[in-house]
Amino acid sequence: MMSNVTLEVNSVRKTIRKREIIKDINFTVRKGEVFGFLGPNGAGKTTTIRMLVGLIKPTAGSIRICGYDVKKDYKKAMQHLGCIVENPELYPFLSGWNNLLHFARMLPNVGEERMMEVVKLVGLEQRIHDTVKTYSLGMRQRLGIAQAMLNRPKLLILDEPTNGLDPAGIREMRQFIRMLAEEEGMSVLVSSHLLSEIQLLCDRVAIITKGEIVKVGTVSDLLSVQERMSWRVEPIELGKEVLRSLTEVMETEDGYVLTSFDEEETPKWNKALVKHGVKILEMNRRLPTLEDLFLELTDGGGAGIE
Amino acid sequence: MSNLIQNEMMKLLAKKRLLIIGVIVAVLIILFTYAQYKQAEEQREKLGTDDWRTAVQQQIIDIQNRLSSSRMLDEWREQLQVTVKQQQYYLDHNINPSEPGAATFTRMFIENASSLFIPLLVMIVASDLVSSESSQGTIKLLLTRPVLRWKILMSKYITLLLSISIIVAMTGVLAYALSGVVFGYHGWNAPIITGFTVEAGNVDTSGVRLISQWQLLLMDFGLVWYIAVVVGTLAFMLSVLIRSTPAGMGIMLAALISGAILNNMVSSWESAKYFFMVNLQLTNYLSGVAPPIEGMTLLSSVLILFVWWLAALIVSFIVFIRKDVY
């Protein structure tokens, strides 16, 4: 059992100046899975990640990477870890290769061969000897991953890995992360504040808000939270009345009417609206937003959880 | 550990810091060489002779004229009286106090550079050794490797010591090489008098000894290196404590400059001698210039600097090992 767990977080707390930033966090990451760490900005994602990688010391609790305690067995724990915290900040005045050399020198048994391997893995062969300040953001991101892979980590921690990338870059990154988990059997912990991203990328997810994990589960569990339909109709009062006679209705602040989404029912509601002479300006399927999810999860137990 | 030091040197060289420092030193030395040359020429014209005795004699007369002015601070008066006595001693013993040559120029340059110029150069390296990693964010990569934090800081400190040695050596070599073009490459064995002690405005010549210039140069460089290490370590500590390199540099600069100012006005504030910046003119003890505050000796200054050095080092390591990195 234990050998399958690459990261184990036990009752971790962090108090800064008497304010509890992180309140009793528990979760595990297993071998070969992509684990999402989802929460709005300021929820404590980055603080937690910094504790996992040893940059911040927890006030209480323990963190184990491949069975080694980050506090007591720091060196051994770090040997199994690769990480990028926030942006991949590398030395802009050194070449890509010298950046890798710099970090390889800090690791046991990483030679030129392995450096060559990771360069190939992230596809930077062409530009590796240019200085990093001439790199695009996407290339920096890839070099960041290359340095994180130098020690063949069992656990890779990536903080907001798609931040600032263009759509093509985001897709590429996603495929790369899936490949690492599926083909190399690596565990990858990814943090994000975007639900859509977690949906596409992760196997399991932990949702964190205000320094607490409110739920850990598989992504499909989370998706069972109902999708919604949003309507923009005119006149709005009449439209609302018609819909209310057929289903439950909510109104948003910016003038949309929200109903549940159902492939069977929605066309019927549409027909009814038309029949009553209501103009339909816009109809949209809406994925639940992170806020919706939190509302669902923190309000009365939540439907369809685990 | 040698891997880590290699890393630090690689970054330092890529930033071209030492090269910039080398250029600054070279430009300054060329300027001073020219100034010195001009001064010597003017003196020759004024006195109409090459003889150093006439020049020293003239200096003594000049100072005595200034001493007769009634509007002069007591401290200044004392200091000038001491100078007159020293010059007289040189004259009496028939020794040229400033034998021309590159060696003499180097000695004068390093003595004058010891309390402000060299510390400034060292600051260029020391101030951003740690804080640049914090402000670039690379500290996060540095501190998530399987290497203990104290080793990382130690590698940076050793790199600092290496750079200081390079800077001091470079200054010496450049001063000798560049000024020699004008003054000639000689003067190593010129006799120099050292061991004047100043007490209550009186020059005590009982401890005076005659040594070769190269011996004095060696002592000067040793002291300058020591000063540079102390100032460098303090700047290093600020670099650990403060994320912003300019802020750390500003604080250090303010301290150094206030030291230069304080030196001229603290003679009646006795406890000021515990400030590190008042103790930076170690080479003055060798040439017998009166200390800024009575009772200060070479030993007391070296000890006070040592305490500052040790405290800065301890604070640096404790803070660096313990701090949370955001």
From TrEMBL, chain B:
> Its Gene Ontology molecular function terms?
ABC-type transporter activity
Annotated TM spans: 18-37, 157-178, 223-242, 249-269, 298-321
| Annotated Gene Ontology cellular component terms | plasma membrane
Q: Which Pfam families match?
A: ABC2_membrane_2 (PF12679)
Q: Which UniProt keywords apply?
A: Membrane, Transmembrane, Transmembrane helix
Taxonomy, superkingdom: Bacteria
Q: What is this protein called?
A: ABC transporter permease
Which organism does this record belong to? Peribacillus asahii
